[in-house]
């Protein structure tokens, strides 16, 4: 044990996110989107939107 099944984890997160999206709509989507942009910023050192 100790090694995380990333695929499984991601699927769980996606399911959770979709449930939240259905409840909260665009607000949650915006949070997830911004989170993705933050990850991209730290990874590539620039904003993918620019």
Automatic annotation (TrEMBL):
<protein>
    <submittedName>
        <fullName>Uncharacterized protein</fullName>
    </submittedName>
</protein>
